[in-house]
Write a structure and sequence with these properties.
Length: about 250
């Protein structure tokens, strides 16, 4: 018959086999307690709600800030009828005639009328092909007319009654160039430097056109600054060739 031996409290097995597990469990409990005291446990569902609340508060703060800033903005100027009218299209019209060597007056049919804004200049001078009284209609003319329009200008010809009309983008000051179709300047004038064009006229024309001397050529021309109001503008001009001793008339 076998007898169970009593464990010796002084033996290493007794000390390690009984007391050590109890100590580990105590240490683990203390670690858990310390972690619980330092951190807050939150359920995932609650964390999602906290996220939405944070986003909502942020957006709400931005909205309140935007509204507050808007309240301090300067009010926009209300457009008055006068301001609105300044952007309306306006009409420049008139009559162009010429007097021949015999003193007879005629409509200057086919003469060219070009209007350009006095305070606006193209980035580069406009080509002249297709814009002269003797030029035929062409694709080049259409391109150059589009360039004129982009720079606030307009081009037309005088009809058989000697009348013309131009629609301009807005009221204001315009330079108006009229080139006669039926009356040329005398050779004694066109043989001078710059084809007899006045230096001031040539300087101003050069800001708008390429080769203004070739644009006008030998023809009579009229270059003036005109004010066009909302109610419109009118030009009546007569080229007088009766005083030229060696008149050149294009037939």
């Amino acid at each position: 018959m076998r007898h169970l031996e009593r464990e010796n409290p002084a033996s290493p097995d007794f000390q390690s086999g009984v007391s050590q597990p109890l100590k580990d469990r105590a240490d683990t409990s203390q670690d858990v307690a310390r972690l619980l005291s330092e951190y807050v446990l939150i359920r995932r569902a609650a964390l999602s709600w906290y996220y939405f609340v944070l986003v909502g508060c942020t957006l709400g703060g931005l909205a309140i800030g935007w509204l507050a800033a808007s309240s301090f903005r300067q009010p926009r100027a209300v457009s008055s009828p006068a301001n609105a009218a300044s952007g309306e299209r306006v009409l420049l019209s008139g009559k162009i005639r010429f007097i021949d060597a015999g003193g007879m007056g005629h409509p200057d049919t086919g003469a060219v009328v070009i209007a350009l804004p006095a305070r606006q200049f193209p980035d580069s001078p406009v080509p002249i092909e297709g814009l002269r009284p003797w030029d035929r209609d062409s694709a080049q003319r259409q391109r150059n007319l589009e360039t004129l329009a982009e720079n606030g200008g307009a081009w037309t010809t005088v009809d058989e009654a000697g009348e013309f009309s131009l629609v301009l983008p807005m009221q204001g000051d315009y330079w108006v160039l009229v080139i006669s179709k039926n009356l040329a300047r005398p050779k004694s004038v066109t043989e001078q430097p710059n084809r007899g064009i006045a230096e001031l006229d040539l300087s101003q024309l050069s800001r708008y056109f390429e080769r203004p001397g070739d644009l006008i050529g030998p023809q009579e021309y009229y270059w003036s600054r005109q004010r066009v109001e909302v109610s419109g503008g009118r030009i009546h001009h007569v080229f007088d060739g009766s005083s030229w001793s060696d008149l050149d008339k294009i037939r």
